[in-house]
Amino acid sequence: MTFLDSMHLRNLRGLAAALLLFPFVLTAQESDFHCGANELQRMGSLIDGHPERLQEIAQAQAQLDHFTSTWQGDAARGGGGYVIPVVFHIIHNNGPENISDDQVRDAIRVMNEDYNKLNSDWADVQPEFLNIVANVGITFKLAQLDPSGNCTNGITRTVSTLTYDGDQNMKNLIQWPRNRYLNIWVSAGAGGAAGYSMYPSAVSGSWGAAADGIVILSDYVGSIGTSSVSHSHALSHEAGHWLNLKHCWGDSNTPGLPSNCGEDDNVSDTPNTIGWTTCNLRGATCGSVVDNVENFMEYSYCSKMFTNGQKARVLAALNSSTASRNNLWTASNLALTGCSGPDQLCMADMSADKRVICAGGSVNFSDESYNGVTTWNWSFPGGTPSASTNQDPVITYDVPGTYDVNLMAGNGSATVNAQRPQYIVVLPNTGQPLPFSEGFEATASLPSADWMLNDINQDGSFQAVGNAAYSGSKSVRLLNTAAKSGYVDELISNTIDLSNSGPTTISFRYAFAKRTANNTDALRLYISKDCGQNWVLKRALTGTTLSTASVQGGSFTPNGQAQWGYSETSPLTGDYLTSNLRLKFWFQSGGGNNLWLDDININGTPLGIADAAGSSTAVNVVPNPAGDRAEVFANLKDAGPVKVEVLDLLGQPVMRVANEVKPAGPAQWALNLESLPTGLYLVRVQQQDAVQVVRFTKN
């Protein structure tokens, strides 16, 4: 820390700070997971280089402590519960951290149970604490109106690689006004922690508003989806920090230290403790009869309760003007955020577990309408059934085509409608037969009937262009710049029928140049044998294997065939010879230059080829035409010596491939054709008196 020396840290112990949640799922051993109490540098540039703000924090903490010690309670406002509008900002890179709306709603459920003494296990706490289990009386409610007054479900989604950092820069991507909402950011990383929050005093100044809220890992949100029951109370713990609660052992960074007995959480009914990372229910430290191990502000994995003393401290924070906590629950703010009164029906929405299927497949639809929806009327033209009143119906599509989906959602007195034209694409279960050759000469634009796009970052994707090609006049280009580093685009085929083919290879031409020597762009070819439900990697090109031209700072366009590369898969066999094979070209930018694709070919041979005499022996060369590599496949009728050669068209051997003893049945040999010039050749397979010859072309 450039702005704090160790003396400052000691002096500021007990002041507001960024509080990192230690994982709840722990073994009986001490964990070395870092808890970041007093790590103010997590606010980044908001505090780094601003030593004067440390004094502001100290003053704000002193003022809040004084208010807390003198606050007389809820009598003046008439008592009753508090409602806090909440917004979840899901920051994701299209990974598992992009949790579902249901998981967010489950997290709100758990928080409300914990803060309202509704968790089913509170009565199981140790008897010494049973009579001080608090009903804190706070209801966290997802916002129903955004800062502009528009309908919302209280969940936003932002695509960014900053999800892996979970720092102040990530928070800066999106924040709603902290005087109207509790901001919760869901991320894939949080600087080595499960989550963190700020005391009100640490963010009390206007400069601190951008840091105000909770950062939480996606697998500590609620009890379902990517999370679990054992992780589910993490947000209750972090909300405690946001509401001015310390750990039960005070501000020490590490639970379990004897020195923690000298720390205090400023709550009278939580015994001083060294802090717990295991569920030792009768644990007693610092002279206590028994520690409050089951407190939500402990690190034990058996948290069940807040105390009445913690409740008083929390409600004081909510009634203090420090960090605008006292505005959140006011009637005027609840009206502005849509959190007063019944849920407001305002939008119909839907999702589907898959948008592209093969004929005969089914789609699981989910209602995403909000708020307070109780009735659903779905319409599925082309589907079976064609209508449904279920909230989450399952629909089967038997005929290839593109189909609309409509949903009318209601609450008993009003309805809202969502229309999704061309929402479901149904592909032929038996696709285009071989030979498959795609040079994009007939492709006017993308997407097309043969190719789909997945523009994940919505920044423009593959395009059919006519200014460069390996062969013909057209190809496909993906514009790529240094600013797109980390972005992913996909080019995905329709279905292709390989069911009547023997061993089959996939080849393609590509062109790419780096902008700098350190670029990390990657191109991958995936295939799917089940219409795109699952994908298997077949080719991966990075670094020098991807680059086909020298480093170029300007926009790269290949200049002639010499600046194109060639790639080819190993032969597909077995259950990959399916009727609904699909291809996916996946490209991730590493800051390099443009990518070009052309001449995608699938080379297979029909099954059941026999020699002129009707022998069961069959010989194939795959691929054909071949590049520098090929495979010879034969079905040997008998066991015994076999000789394999490559001949020119005059019948002269130009390559000896094998001379060995083989068993009867399928046999395979690799051909290294690098030394052969382009042209026509023969492969001769000789076994005793039987000779089989097949012709192939070397490109």
Provide the number of structural domains.
Answer: 4
Determine the fraction of residues in helical runs and give it as a percent range.
10-25%
Category by helix and strand content: mainly beta
How does CATH name the architecture of the largest domain?
3-Layer(aba) Sandwich
**Largest beta sheet, briefly?**
7 strands, mixed
Shape: elongated
Identify the CATH homologous superfamily of the largest domain. Answer: Collagenase (Catalytic Domain)
Low-confidence stretches: 1-35, 606-617
In percent, how much strand structure appears in the residues? 25-35%
Number of helices: 9
CATH fold group of the largest domain = Collagenase (Catalytic Domain)
Total strand count, please? Answer: 36
Task: Identify the CATH class of the largest domain.
Answer: Alpha Beta
Distance between the termini: 62 Å
Radius of gyration: 33 Å
* Average pLDDT level: 89
Please identify the oligomeric state.
single chain
